[in-house]
């Protein structure tokens, strides 16, 4: 029996409920070890079969619990199935990664777990997009259509990435000091409340700061009429804030250590804090910021191998396991796929699968203003 | 005869060629790339527009924002250097006047922090100065304070982090200078009627000034070029010039502007080194690494 059939039989047993997820993953891992150790004639055959495929693909992600989930639930079984090693790297932010890609050679970076449609458009602007053969990714049919369409719109009908999960950047607050009622009543303006001076945080990323500045000045973030009012709100927030955080780990540390009482936060990270027992409330205010994350394939990558990995990662069992690991709902359509018991409890989960209640960055609008606003934010942040 | 002379003339260049090639490949050529980049432009999509444009230089040299941040950077570097000099002189003096056996141990202790990542060392202050950090916990348990004091995320903690990082450089430089002073000189001064303090002020201190200057130069240059410390220990406004370079290159994907900014910092710090070399000589710094 070859590795693929063994994997399929294992997957079927898991689907039928004959084995638990733990056993399923353990068996996959054990099979991987056996295959690696035994080698011999079977190993030679396998190597011969793999000669036409790349030996490895590179995947870059956010690190932390997200990368751990990918590593555990997706890469190890994929390598076991295909013989293609997934070399995973991490980045601290989308900006940092795009700078690395820009400095690299075509094919040096293959897949990345990128944020939102905004970055997808940036990569397209830099001519870094590829064209996926959707026929090789049958599991794409299970993905929420409203997450795929914005990608198609940017790349003229084709796609260079598959949506993988979504979440929100809402308001996280310490319930010991701020009640749910107060948070709900004040919404985004909670973060410019002088009562919490020195105990306010914020993500030091220009897009998020401007989005929340727009909400605080009662404007539509995707159609800002008075940008000066937004800058004023950002200045107010800056003067009240203790710290601009720059990573999920820093966000969690600042809240958990009670250095700050209120900040914006990523829904999955706040869920992780709540699961650790911290009494942190989470609110998506009116016009709150939703985002999707996608698995992006860069130009110059081995497409067939990448498409196979994408299809594998969209396999419901894998996508659900990763989603539970990172606390973000998967991009799978709940109307088509049974998502189990945990996913519906995750923050930002939409049981209808339309995501109509969430607001997203309009990529055309934000990309048009990116050069000017990112530079201005750098100055406003420093007291200008 | 002529061939011998030519061969003699070529020999030093042949011997130097590995070093010259290394410096050329790893320093000069990359630097030239940065110079060329600084004359390009960033397009709306983030791609670079090749050409010869002075826009970045006009912006960097003409915009008050960059001058202010540069001034703030040099101010932070100056405070750091002064504190390092004041705090570092005492342990350097102590090590220099310790019997030979203990000296090796003390020097080893001095090198110990270098074995730990600079970022980790910087982040350790969060566990010390945080609201639930060691200092607040001790003061709360002793009843000195009723609620935690907010000590982190301001310019003072940035300077503190930099002092922590740079102090060993200062101590080593001052130590090398003090160690080279002939002990007979202070003894002679005392035998001629100087008190211990007068002998230090009139003999030891002046003779150790080259080491102090070398340490100060190193501390200042390293402090002025840092960007990690303000990110980890600074508040929203606390930025140094290197943070602007990072933002231009990484966040704004504006490599041409980032190149111009980095060259400005390089030129200013380079000028400082040139002035130092002109009046004090670079040899003093090299001694501390021997």
List the SSEs and their pairings.
The complex is a heterodimer of chains A (384) and B (290).
Chain A: H1 3-15, H2 21-38, H3 40-50, E1 56-61, H4 64-82, E2 85-90, H5 94-103, E3 111-115, H6 116-125, H7 145-154, E4 161-174, H8 180-186, E5 200-203, H9 206-216, H10 227-240, E6 241-245, H11 248-256, E7 262-266, H12 267-275, E8 280-283, E9 289-297, H13 303-313, H14 316-326, H15 363-381
Parallel strand pairs in A: 1-2, 1-3, 5-6
Antiparallel strand pairs in A: 3-9, 4-7, 4-8, 4-9
Chain B: H1 2-37, E1 41-42, E2 48-49, H2 55-62, H3 64-96, H4 100-111, H5 118-129, H6 134-141, H7 155-179, H8 183-191, H9 196-224, H10 228-233, H11 241-251, H12 255-279, H13 283-288
Antiparallel strand pairs in B: 1-2
Helix pairs in contact in B: 1-12, 3-7, 3-9, 5-7, 7-9, 8-9, 9-12, 11-12
Domain ABC transmembrane type-1 (chain B): 70-276
Transmembrane segments (chain B): 12-40, 69-92, 104-120, 157-176, 212-233, 263-281
Keywords (chain B): Cell membrane, Membrane, Transmembrane, Transmembrane helix, Transport
Describe the structure using short key phrases:
heterodimer; A: about 375 residues; alpha/beta; D-Maltodextrin-Binding Protein, domain 2; 2 domains; seven-stranded mixed sheet; two-stranded parallel sheet; 9 strands; about 15% strand; disordered N terminus; B: about 290 residues; mainly alpha; MetI-like fold; two-stranded antiparallel ribbon; 13 helices; about 75% helix; flat
